[in-house]
Amino acid sequence: MKERLQKWRESTSNFWGSRSKGQKGTILGGTLLILILIVLVIFFTTNTQYVPLYNDLSVQEAGQITKELDAKSVPYELENGGSSIMVPEENVDSLLLEFASMGLPSSGSIDYSFFSENASWGVTENEFSVMKLDAMQTELGKLIKAIDGIQDAQVMINMPEQPVFADDVTGETSVAIMIDTQPGYQFEGNQIEGLYHLVSKAVPNLKPEDIIIMNQYFEYYDRDTQFAGGGDTYSNQQTIKREVEKDIQRRLQQMLGTMVGNENIVVSVTADIDFSQENRTEELVDPVDMESMEGIPVSLESIQESYTGQGNPDDVAGTGEEDIANYPAGEGEDGEYELDKETINYEFNRVRREIVESPYKVRDLGIQVAVNNVRQGADGEVEYLNQQEQTSVQEGIDSILNSIIETSVDGDLQNEVTDANTSIVFQEFSTTTEGETQPETGGIPLWLYIVSGVLLLVIIILIVMLRRNRAEEEWLEEEQQEEAVYEDKETVIPDLQTEESEEVIRRKQLEKIANDKPEEFAKLLRSWMNED
Protein backbone atom coordinates (compact mmCIF):
# COMPACT_ATOMS: atom_id res chain seq x y z
CA MET A 1 0.00 0.00 0.00
CA LYS A 2 2.81 2.35 0.89
CA GLU A 3 4.57 1.60 -2.38
CA ARG A 4 1.36 2.40 -4.35
CA LEU A 5 1.01 5.74 -2.61
CA GLN A 6 4.64 6.49 -3.33
CA LYS A 7 4.22 5.64 -7.02
CA TRP A 8 0.99 7.72 -7.24
CA ARG A 9 2.75 10.69 -5.65
CA GLU A 10 5.72 10.40 -8.01
CA SER A 11 3.52 10.09 -11.10
CA THR A 12 1.41 13.06 -10.00
CA SER A 13 4.48 15.23 -9.35
CA ASN A 14 6.00 14.20 -12.69
CA PHE A 15 2.72 15.00 -14.46
CA TRP A 16 2.38 18.39 -12.75
CA GLY A 17 6.07 19.23 -13.33
CA SER A 18 5.85 18.42 -17.02
CA ARG A 19 2.93 20.88 -17.50
CA SER A 20 3.49 24.44 -18.64
CA LYS A 21 2.23 27.53 -16.76
CA GLY A 22 -0.72 27.95 -19.10
CA GLN A 23 -1.76 24.35 -18.65
CA LYS A 24 -1.39 24.66 -14.87
CA GLY A 25 -3.61 27.79 -14.86
CA THR A 26 -6.24 26.09 -16.99
CA ILE A 27 -6.33 23.08 -14.68
CA LEU A 28 -6.62 25.23 -11.51
CA GLY A 29 -9.26 27.54 -13.05
CA GLY A 30 -11.36 24.64 -14.29
CA THR A 31 -11.19 22.94 -10.91
CA LEU A 32 -12.19 26.15 -9.12
CA LEU A 33 -15.07 26.75 -11.55
CA ILE A 34 -16.36 23.21 -11.02
CA LEU A 35 -16.26 23.70 -7.24
CA ILE A 36 -18.17 27.00 -7.52
CA LEU A 37 -20.82 25.38 -9.72
CA ILE A 38 -21.21 22.53 -7.25
CA VAL A 39 -21.63 24.99 -4.35
CA LEU A 40 -24.22 27.04 -6.28
CA VAL A 41 -26.18 23.94 -7.27
CA ILE A 42 -26.21 22.72 -3.67
CA PHE A 43 -27.26 26.18 -2.41
CA PHE A 44 -30.15 26.62 -4.82
CA THR A 45 -31.38 23.05 -4.47
CA THR A 46 -31.28 23.04 -0.68
CA ASN A 47 -32.46 26.67 -0.14
CA THR A 48 -36.21 26.80 0.66
CA GLN A 49 -38.18 29.64 -0.90
CA TYR A 50 -40.99 30.84 1.35
CA VAL A 51 -44.20 32.35 -0.06
CA PRO A 52 -47.27 33.73 1.78
CA LEU A 53 -49.85 31.17 2.82
CA TYR A 54 -52.25 33.65 4.50
CA ASN A 55 -52.18 37.42 4.98
CA ASP A 56 -54.00 39.79 7.35
CA LEU A 57 -54.81 37.11 9.91
CA SER A 58 -56.05 37.83 13.41
CA VAL A 59 -54.11 36.56 16.42
CA GLN A 60 -56.63 33.75 16.94
CA GLU A 61 -56.52 32.64 13.30
CA ALA A 62 -52.70 32.77 13.18
CA GLY A 63 -52.54 30.61 16.31
CA GLN A 64 -54.81 27.98 14.72
CA ILE A 65 -52.72 27.83 11.52
CA THR A 66 -49.33 27.63 13.29
CA LYS A 67 -50.64 24.87 15.58
CA GLU A 68 -51.61 22.76 12.56
CA LEU A 69 -48.28 23.48 10.84
CA ASP A 70 -46.37 22.36 13.94
CA ALA A 71 -48.42 19.16 14.05
CA LYS A 72 -47.57 18.48 10.39
CA SER A 73 -43.86 19.40 10.90
CA VAL A 74 -44.05 22.00 8.12
CA PRO A 75 -41.51 24.85 8.47
CA TYR A 76 -42.96 28.35 8.43
CA GLU A 77 -42.04 31.99 9.06
CA LEU A 78 -44.11 34.81 10.57
CA GLU A 79 -44.11 38.33 9.16
CA ASN A 80 -45.98 41.62 9.67
CA GLY A 81 -46.30 41.11 13.38
CA GLY A 82 -47.67 37.59 13.04
CA SER A 83 -50.49 38.48 10.65
CA SER A 84 -48.77 36.81 7.65
CA ILE A 85 -47.59 33.17 7.53
CA MET A 86 -44.89 32.09 5.04
CA VAL A 87 -44.43 28.42 4.07
CA PRO A 88 -42.29 26.61 1.45
CA GLU A 89 -43.55 27.23 -2.05
CA GLU A 90 -44.04 23.55 -2.86
CA ASN A 91 -46.41 23.13 0.12
CA VAL A 92 -48.69 26.11 -0.49
CA ASP A 93 -51.33 24.49 -2.70
CA SER A 94 -51.67 21.31 -0.66
CA LEU A 95 -51.87 23.24 2.63
CA LEU A 96 -54.52 25.60 1.26
CA LEU A 97 -56.72 22.70 0.17
CA GLU A 98 -56.20 20.79 3.41
CA PHE A 99 -56.91 23.78 5.65
CA ALA A 100 -59.97 24.69 3.58
CA SER A 101 -61.40 21.21 4.14
CA MET A 102 -60.78 21.67 7.88
CA GLY A 103 -62.56 25.05 7.92
CA LEU A 104 -59.40 27.03 8.68
CA PRO A 105 -58.70 29.81 9.27
CA SER A 106 -61.67 30.16 11.58
CA SER A 107 -62.27 33.34 13.56
CA GLY A 108 -64.57 31.52 16.00
CA SER A 109 -67.64 33.36 14.72
CA ILE A 110 -70.80 31.66 13.58
CA ASP A 111 -72.16 32.31 10.10
CA TYR A 112 -75.23 30.99 8.32
CA SER A 113 -73.35 27.87 7.16
CA PHE A 114 -73.26 26.71 10.79
CA PHE A 115 -76.96 25.88 10.75
CA SER A 116 -76.71 23.68 7.64
CA GLU A 117 -73.67 21.84 9.00
CA ASN A 118 -74.95 21.40 12.56
CA ALA A 119 -78.67 20.82 12.14
CA SER A 120 -79.98 19.25 15.35
CA TRP A 121 -83.21 18.94 17.30
CA GLY A 122 -81.38 19.24 20.63
CA VAL A 123 -81.06 23.04 20.57
CA THR A 124 -83.20 25.14 22.88
CA GLU A 125 -84.94 28.29 21.72
CA ASN A 126 -82.57 30.54 23.68
CA GLU A 127 -79.49 28.79 22.26
CA PHE A 128 -80.88 29.08 18.75
CA SER A 129 -81.59 32.81 19.24
CA VAL A 130 -78.02 33.43 20.43
CA MET A 131 -76.52 31.50 17.50
CA LYS A 132 -78.80 33.26 15.03
CA LEU A 133 -77.81 36.69 16.37
CA ASP A 134 -74.11 35.76 16.24
CA ALA A 135 -74.48 34.54 12.67
CA MET A 136 -76.27 37.74 11.67
CA GLN A 137 -73.46 39.85 13.18
CA THR A 138 -70.81 37.81 11.37
CA GLU A 139 -72.54 38.01 7.99
CA LEU A 140 -73.13 41.76 8.34
CA GLY A 141 -69.46 42.25 9.26
CA LYS A 142 -68.39 40.34 6.12
CA LEU A 143 -70.75 42.46 4.04
CA ILE A 144 -69.26 45.70 5.37
CA LYS A 145 -65.65 44.48 4.95
CA ALA A 146 -66.30 44.03 1.23
CA ILE A 147 -66.71 47.82 0.86
CA ASP A 148 -63.74 49.69 -0.57
CA GLY A 149 -61.74 51.50 2.12
CA ILE A 150 -62.83 49.24 5.01
CA GLN A 151 -60.31 46.64 6.21
CA ASP A 152 -62.32 45.13 9.05
CA ALA A 153 -65.67 45.57 10.75
CA GLN A 154 -67.08 44.53 14.11
CA VAL A 155 -70.86 44.51 14.46
CA MET A 156 -72.96 44.44 17.64
CA ILE A 157 -76.72 44.01 17.26
CA ASN A 158 -79.10 44.70 20.14
CA MET A 159 -82.36 42.99 19.27
CA PRO A 160 -85.21 43.19 21.83
CA GLU A 161 -87.16 40.12 22.87
CA GLN A 162 -90.59 39.53 21.43
CA PRO A 163 -93.36 40.52 23.88
CA VAL A 164 -95.37 37.80 25.54
CA PHE A 165 -98.54 39.83 25.97
CA ALA A 166 -100.25 41.96 23.38
CA ASP A 167 -100.14 45.05 25.61
CA ASP A 168 -96.38 44.87 26.13
CA VAL A 169 -94.27 47.51 24.42
CA THR A 170 -91.65 46.17 22.00
CA GLY A 171 -88.22 47.77 22.22
CA GLU A 172 -86.35 49.10 19.21
CA THR A 173 -83.50 47.29 17.49
CA SER A 174 -80.15 49.10 17.49
CA VAL A 175 -76.78 48.39 15.84
CA ALA A 176 -73.28 49.57 16.75
CA ILE A 177 -70.53 49.16 14.14
CA MET A 178 -66.78 49.64 14.56
CA ILE A 179 -64.95 49.83 11.20
CA ASP A 180 -61.21 49.70 10.58
CA THR A 181 -60.57 52.09 7.69
CA GLN A 182 -57.52 52.18 5.46
CA PRO A 183 -55.00 54.89 6.43
CA GLY A 184 -55.73 58.15 4.61
CA TYR A 185 -58.96 56.93 3.02
CA GLN A 186 -61.76 59.50 2.88
CA PHE A 187 -65.37 58.57 2.20
CA GLU A 188 -66.91 60.60 -0.60
CA GLY A 189 -70.36 61.34 -1.90
CA ASN A 190 -73.18 59.39 -0.31
CA GLN A 191 -71.07 56.41 0.80
CA ILE A 192 -71.93 56.82 4.49
CA GLU A 193 -75.60 57.30 3.64
CA GLY A 194 -75.43 54.12 1.54
CA LEU A 195 -73.79 52.24 4.42
CA TYR A 196 -76.57 53.31 6.78
CA HIS A 197 -79.17 52.20 4.23
CA LEU A 198 -77.41 48.85 3.73
CA VAL A 199 -77.31 48.06 7.46
CA SER A 200 -80.93 49.14 8.01
CA LYS A 201 -82.11 46.72 5.31
CA ALA A 202 -79.93 43.84 6.55
CA VAL A 203 -81.36 43.82 10.10
CA PRO A 204 -85.13 43.39 10.63
CA ASN A 205 -87.08 46.30 12.13
CA LEU A 206 -84.02 48.58 12.20
CA LYS A 207 -84.32 52.32 11.63
CA PRO A 208 -81.37 54.31 10.22
CA GLU A 209 -81.42 56.65 13.23
CA ASP A 210 -80.75 53.64 15.52
CA ILE A 211 -77.39 52.91 13.82
CA ILE A 212 -74.04 54.14 15.15
CA ILE A 213 -70.88 53.83 13.03
CA MET A 214 -67.41 54.69 14.35
CA ASN A 215 -63.87 54.00 13.12
CA GLN A 216 -60.76 52.91 14.99
CA TYR A 217 -59.87 56.55 15.75
CA PHE A 218 -63.21 57.14 17.58
CA GLU A 219 -64.43 59.29 14.70
CA TYR A 220 -68.21 59.18 14.45
CA TYR A 221 -69.73 58.87 10.99
CA ASP A 222 -73.05 60.68 10.93
CA ARG A 223 -75.03 60.37 7.75
CA ASP A 224 -76.36 63.91 8.23
CA THR A 225 -72.97 65.63 8.59
CA GLN A 226 -70.13 66.47 6.25
CA PHE A 227 -69.03 62.84 6.11
CA ALA A 228 -72.03 62.04 3.99
CA GLY A 229 -70.95 64.63 1.43
CA GLY A 230 -73.14 65.88 -1.36
CA GLY A 231 -76.29 65.49 0.71
CA ASP A 232 -79.45 67.36 -0.05
CA THR A 233 -79.75 70.63 1.89
CA TYR A 234 -83.48 70.22 2.41
CA SER A 235 -83.02 66.66 3.70
CA ASN A 236 -80.37 67.81 6.17
CA GLN A 237 -82.56 70.63 7.43
CA GLN A 238 -85.54 68.32 7.92
CA THR A 239 -83.34 65.85 9.79
CA ILE A 240 -82.11 68.58 12.14
CA LYS A 241 -85.71 69.71 12.69
CA ARG A 242 -86.79 66.15 13.56
CA GLU A 243 -83.85 65.70 15.93
CA VAL A 244 -84.69 68.92 17.79
CA GLU A 245 -88.34 67.94 18.09
CA LYS A 246 -87.46 64.41 19.17
CA ASP A 247 -85.04 65.62 21.85
CA ILE A 248 -87.53 68.07 23.37
CA GLN A 249 -90.35 65.51 23.15
CA ARG A 250 -88.23 62.88 24.94
CA ARG A 251 -87.30 65.23 27.77
CA LEU A 252 -90.90 66.36 28.24
CA GLN A 253 -92.22 62.80 28.14
CA GLN A 254 -89.73 61.77 30.82
CA MET A 255 -90.44 64.80 33.02
CA LEU A 256 -94.23 64.75 32.75
CA GLY A 257 -94.29 60.96 32.98
CA THR A 258 -92.89 61.18 36.51
CA MET A 259 -95.83 63.40 37.45
CA VAL A 260 -98.82 61.53 36.02
CA GLY A 261 -97.24 58.31 34.69
CA ASN A 262 -95.89 57.54 31.23
CA GLU A 263 -99.01 55.59 30.30
CA ASN A 264 -101.21 58.60 31.11
CA ILE A 265 -99.56 61.24 28.93
CA VAL A 266 -98.60 61.75 25.28
CA VAL A 267 -96.39 64.65 24.12
CA SER A 268 -95.98 66.05 20.61
CA VAL A 269 -93.55 68.84 19.67
CA THR A 270 -93.34 70.97 16.52
CA ALA A 271 -90.40 73.33 16.02
CA ASP A 272 -89.84 76.30 13.73
CA ILE A 273 -86.14 76.37 12.81
CA ASP A 274 -84.33 79.33 11.26
CA PHE A 275 -81.56 77.99 9.00
CA SER A 276 -80.32 81.38 7.77
CA GLN A 277 -76.60 81.79 8.46
CA GLU A 278 -74.70 85.03 8.90
CA ASN A 279 -70.98 85.79 8.87
CA ARG A 280 -70.06 89.35 9.87
CA THR A 281 -67.05 91.36 11.02
CA GLU A 282 -67.36 94.00 13.75
CA GLU A 283 -64.80 96.72 14.50
CA LEU A 284 -65.66 98.38 17.79
CA VAL A 285 -64.08 101.25 19.76
CA ASP A 286 -64.76 101.11 23.49
CA PRO A 287 -63.60 103.50 26.22
CA VAL A 288 -61.15 102.22 28.77
CA ASP A 289 -63.12 103.67 31.68
CA MET A 290 -66.78 102.84 31.14
CA GLU A 291 -67.92 105.17 33.96
CA SER A 292 -66.29 108.37 32.67
CA MET A 293 -66.39 107.15 29.07
CA GLU A 294 -62.76 108.22 28.63
CA GLY A 295 -59.72 106.51 27.29
CA ILE A 296 -56.05 106.56 28.24
CA PRO A 297 -54.31 109.97 27.56
CA VAL A 298 -51.31 109.39 25.30
CA SER A 299 -50.27 113.01 24.44
CA LEU A 300 -50.85 116.55 25.80
CA GLU A 301 -50.38 119.92 24.02
CA SER A 302 -50.81 123.22 25.98
CA ILE A 303 -50.62 126.77 24.42
CA GLN A 304 -50.77 129.99 26.54
CA GLU A 305 -50.52 133.58 25.06
CA SER A 306 -51.14 137.04 26.64
CA TYR A 307 -50.68 140.72 25.50
CA THR A 308 -51.23 144.18 27.11
CA GLY A 309 -50.57 147.58 25.38
CA GLN A 310 -51.51 149.85 22.47
CA GLY A 311 -52.25 148.72 18.98
CA ASN A 312 -52.99 145.33 17.73
CA PRO A 313 -50.32 142.81 18.48
CA ASP A 314 -48.64 141.40 15.43
CA ASP A 315 -51.25 142.72 13.03
CA VAL A 316 -51.30 141.15 9.66
CA ALA A 317 -51.98 143.14 6.55
CA GLY A 318 -55.37 142.53 5.02
CA THR A 319 -58.88 142.17 6.16
CA GLY A 320 -59.73 140.21 9.24
CA GLU A 321 -62.50 137.70 9.55
CA GLU A 322 -64.85 140.25 11.16
CA ASP A 323 -63.76 143.34 9.15
CA ILE A 324 -65.70 144.72 6.21
CA ALA A 325 -63.73 145.32 3.06
CA ASN A 326 -63.16 149.00 2.01
CA TYR A 327 -64.59 150.21 5.31
CA PRO A 328 -62.37 152.56 7.33
CA ALA A 329 -61.51 151.15 10.73
CA GLY A 330 -60.81 153.08 13.81
CA GLU A 331 -57.39 153.51 15.27
CA GLY A 332 -56.30 151.02 17.80
CA GLU A 333 -56.44 151.85 21.45
CA ASP A 334 -55.09 150.24 24.59
CA GLY A 335 -56.13 146.58 24.86
CA GLU A 336 -55.37 143.14 26.25
CA TYR A 337 -55.05 139.74 24.59
CA GLU A 338 -54.86 136.27 26.20
CA LEU A 339 -54.92 132.71 24.69
CA ASP A 340 -55.05 129.51 26.75
CA LYS A 341 -55.33 126.27 24.69
CA GLU A 342 -54.86 122.62 25.81
CA THR A 343 -55.14 119.53 23.55
CA ILE A 344 -55.19 115.95 24.96
CA ASN A 345 -55.11 112.83 22.76
CA TYR A 346 -56.81 109.70 24.23
CA GLU A 347 -56.39 106.04 23.20
CA PHE A 348 -59.45 103.78 23.24
CA ASN A 349 -59.92 99.97 23.07
CA ARG A 350 -60.26 98.83 19.50
CA VAL A 351 -62.03 95.46 19.15
CA ARG A 352 -62.28 93.45 15.95
CA ARG A 353 -64.74 90.55 15.92
CA GLU A 354 -65.37 87.99 13.20
CA ILE A 355 -68.68 86.32 14.03
CA VAL A 356 -69.94 83.10 12.43
CA GLU A 357 -73.39 82.32 13.74
CA SER A 358 -74.73 78.82 14.35
CA PRO A 359 -76.15 76.96 11.33
CA TYR A 360 -79.67 77.04 12.78
CA LYS A 361 -81.74 78.67 15.52
CA VAL A 362 -84.96 77.59 17.17
CA ARG A 363 -87.37 80.35 16.22
CA ASP A 364 -90.54 79.04 17.82
CA LEU A 365 -91.95 75.93 19.50
CA GLY A 366 -95.38 74.37 19.63
CA ILE A 367 -96.05 71.70 22.26
CA GLN A 368 -99.19 69.58 22.42
CA VAL A 369 -99.91 67.43 25.48
CA ALA A 370 -102.69 64.86 25.87
CA VAL A 371 -103.48 63.75 29.44
CA ASN A 372 -105.57 60.75 30.40
CA ASN A 373 -108.46 61.95 32.57
CA VAL A 374 -109.31 58.45 33.79
CA ARG A 375 -107.71 56.85 36.81
CA GLN A 376 -108.12 53.66 38.82
CA GLY A 377 -109.81 54.19 42.17
CA ALA A 378 -108.86 52.55 45.45
CA ASP A 379 -111.72 50.06 45.08
CA GLY A 380 -110.78 49.30 41.47
CA GLU A 381 -113.56 51.39 39.96
CA VAL A 382 -113.07 53.88 37.15
CA GLU A 383 -112.81 57.51 38.24
CA TYR A 384 -112.64 60.66 36.12
CA LEU A 385 -110.62 63.72 37.07
CA ASN A 386 -112.81 66.57 38.27
CA GLN A 387 -112.40 70.15 37.11
CA GLN A 388 -110.25 71.15 40.08
CA GLU A 389 -107.84 68.28 39.53
CA GLN A 390 -107.62 69.03 35.82
CA THR A 391 -106.87 72.69 36.56
CA SER A 392 -104.12 71.74 39.01
CA VAL A 393 -102.50 69.37 36.51
CA GLN A 394 -102.81 71.91 33.70
CA GLU A 395 -101.12 74.66 35.73
CA GLY A 396 -98.19 72.40 36.56
CA ILE A 397 -97.78 71.32 32.94
CA ASP A 398 -98.11 74.94 31.72
CA SER A 399 -95.27 76.02 33.98
CA ILE A 400 -92.99 73.31 32.65
CA LEU A 401 -93.88 73.98 29.01
CA ASN A 402 -93.30 77.74 29.33
CA SER A 403 -89.90 77.12 30.90
CA ILE A 404 -88.94 74.70 28.11
CA ILE A 405 -89.98 77.19 25.41
CA GLU A 406 -88.15 80.13 27.01
CA THR A 407 -84.90 78.19 27.35
CA SER A 408 -85.05 76.50 23.93
CA VAL A 409 -86.01 79.41 21.67
CA ASP A 410 -83.17 81.73 20.61
CA GLY A 411 -83.06 84.95 22.65
CA ASP A 412 -82.96 87.27 19.62
CA LEU A 413 -86.00 85.59 18.08
CA GLN A 414 -87.97 84.89 21.24
CA ASN A 415 -91.43 86.34 21.58
CA GLU A 416 -93.79 86.26 24.51
CA VAL A 417 -95.12 82.76 25.18
CA THR A 418 -98.83 82.63 24.38
CA ASP A 419 -101.56 80.03 24.49
CA ALA A 420 -100.87 79.34 20.83
CA ASN A 421 -97.53 77.76 21.77
CA THR A 422 -99.02 75.16 24.09
CA SER A 423 -102.08 72.95 24.03
CA ILE A 424 -103.17 70.67 26.88
CA VAL A 425 -106.07 68.28 26.31
CA PHE A 426 -107.68 65.93 28.85
CA GLN A 427 -109.04 62.87 27.10
CA GLU A 428 -109.86 59.27 27.97
CA PHE A 429 -107.28 57.01 26.35
CA SER A 430 -108.55 54.09 24.28
CA THR A 431 -106.27 51.55 25.99
CA THR A 432 -107.78 52.42 29.37
CA THR A 433 -111.33 51.97 28.08
CA GLU A 434 -110.62 48.55 26.64
CA GLY A 435 -108.91 47.41 29.80
CA GLU A 436 -111.80 48.55 31.99
CA THR A 437 -114.67 47.19 29.92
CA GLN A 438 -113.36 43.68 30.44
CA PRO A 439 -112.72 43.39 34.19
CA GLU A 440 -113.68 39.70 34.17
CA THR A 441 -110.75 38.66 31.98
CA GLY A 442 -108.23 41.06 33.50
CA GLY A 443 -107.01 42.05 30.04
CA ILE A 444 -105.79 38.53 29.18
CA PRO A 445 -106.44 37.70 25.51
CA LEU A 446 -108.21 34.54 24.37
CA TRP A 447 -105.20 33.12 22.58
CA LEU A 448 -103.30 33.02 25.86
CA TYR A 449 -105.95 30.75 27.37
CA ILE A 450 -105.74 28.46 24.34
CA VAL A 451 -101.96 28.26 24.56
CA SER A 452 -102.14 27.62 28.31
CA GLY A 453 -104.63 24.80 27.79
CA VAL A 454 -102.47 23.18 25.12
CA LEU A 455 -99.40 23.43 27.35
CA LEU A 456 -101.31 21.91 30.27
CA LEU A 457 -102.46 19.02 28.08
CA VAL A 458 -98.91 18.41 26.87
CA ILE A 459 -97.63 18.41 30.46
CA ILE A 460 -100.29 15.86 31.51
CA ILE A 461 -99.41 13.59 28.58
CA LEU A 462 -95.72 13.81 29.45
CA ILE A 463 -96.41 12.93 33.09
CA VAL A 464 -98.51 9.89 32.08
CA MET A 465 -95.82 8.71 29.66
CA LEU A 466 -93.11 9.14 32.28
CA ARG A 467 -95.08 7.16 34.86
CA ARG A 468 -95.77 4.42 32.31
CA ASN A 469 -92.11 4.22 31.35
CA ARG A 470 -91.13 4.10 35.01
CA ALA A 471 -93.59 1.25 35.68
CA GLU A 472 -92.23 -0.69 32.70
CA GLU A 473 -88.68 -0.18 33.94
CA GLU A 474 -89.59 -1.44 37.42
CA TRP A 475 -91.32 -4.51 35.93
CA LEU A 476 -88.25 -5.27 33.79
CA GLU A 477 -85.98 -4.95 36.82
CA GLU A 478 -88.16 -7.38 38.81
CA GLU A 479 -88.14 -9.88 35.92
CA GLN A 480 -84.38 -9.67 35.66
CA GLN A 481 -83.98 -10.22 39.39
CA GLU A 482 -86.28 -13.28 39.31
CA GLU A 483 -84.39 -14.76 36.36
CA ALA A 484 -81.08 -14.22 38.16
CA VAL A 485 -82.36 -16.00 41.30
CA TYR A 486 -83.71 -18.88 39.19
CA GLU A 487 -80.37 -19.31 37.43
CA ASP A 488 -78.54 -19.37 40.76
CA LYS A 489 -80.88 -22.06 42.00
CA GLU A 490 -80.27 -24.17 38.90
CA THR A 491 -76.50 -23.91 38.97
CA VAL A 492 -76.12 -24.70 42.69
CA ILE A 493 -77.42 -28.25 43.31
CA PRO A 494 -76.91 -29.52 46.89
CA ASP A 495 -75.72 -33.07 47.57
CA LEU A 496 -78.38 -35.57 48.42
CA GLN A 497 -78.34 -36.87 51.92
CA THR A 498 -78.14 -40.69 51.38
CA GLU A 499 -77.85 -43.25 54.15
CA GLU A 500 -74.62 -45.24 53.96
CA SER A 501 -74.88 -49.05 54.10
CA GLU A 502 -72.87 -51.28 56.49
CA GLU A 503 -70.64 -52.49 53.66
CA VAL A 504 -69.74 -48.96 52.67
CA ILE A 505 -68.85 -48.13 56.27
CA ARG A 506 -66.57 -51.20 56.54
CA ARG A 507 -64.90 -50.35 53.21
CA LYS A 508 -64.12 -46.83 54.38
CA GLN A 509 -62.69 -48.21 57.64
CA LEU A 510 -60.45 -50.61 55.74
CA GLU A 511 -59.27 -47.82 53.44
CA LYS A 512 -58.44 -45.68 56.43
CA ILE A 513 -56.49 -48.53 58.10
CA ALA A 514 -54.63 -49.24 54.85
CA ASN A 515 -53.60 -45.63 54.58
CA ASP A 516 -52.73 -45.02 58.21
CA LYS A 517 -51.43 -48.45 59.36
CA PRO A 518 -50.34 -50.54 56.41
CA GLU A 519 -48.59 -53.18 58.62
CA GLU A 520 -51.69 -53.94 60.62
CA PHE A 521 -53.70 -53.95 57.39
CA ALA A 522 -51.30 -56.59 56.00
CA LYS A 523 -51.66 -58.72 59.14
CA LEU A 524 -55.41 -58.43 58.86
CA LEU A 525 -55.33 -59.62 55.26
CA ARG A 526 -53.13 -62.62 56.20
CA SER A 527 -55.53 -63.62 58.94
CA TRP A 528 -58.47 -63.42 56.53
CA MET A 529 -56.58 -65.51 53.99
CA ASN A 530 -55.70 -68.17 56.60
CA GLU A 531 -59.33 -68.33 57.63
CA ASP A 532 -60.36 -68.91 54.04
Features:
532 residues, alpha+beta, 3-stranded antiparallel beta sheet, flat
Question: What do these coordinates show?
Answer:
It is a single chain. This protein is an alpha+beta fold. Helix content is 44%, strand content 23%. The chain is built from 13 helices and 15 strands. It has helices at 2-18, 21-46, 59-71, 92-101, 113-117, 125-145, 191-202, 233-260, 387-408, 430-436, 446-491, 502-516, 518-531; strands spanning 50-54, 77-79, 84-88, 150-158, 173-181, 206-215, 265-274, 279-286, 296-310, 334-347, 349-356, 361-372, 374-376, 382-384, 422-427. Strands 1-3-2 form a 3-stranded antiparallel β-sheet, with helices on one face. A 3-stranded mixed β-sheet has the order 4-5-6. Helix 7 links the parallel strand 5 (173-181) and strand 6. The longest helix has 46 residues, at 446-491. The radius of gyration is 56 Å and the shape is flat.
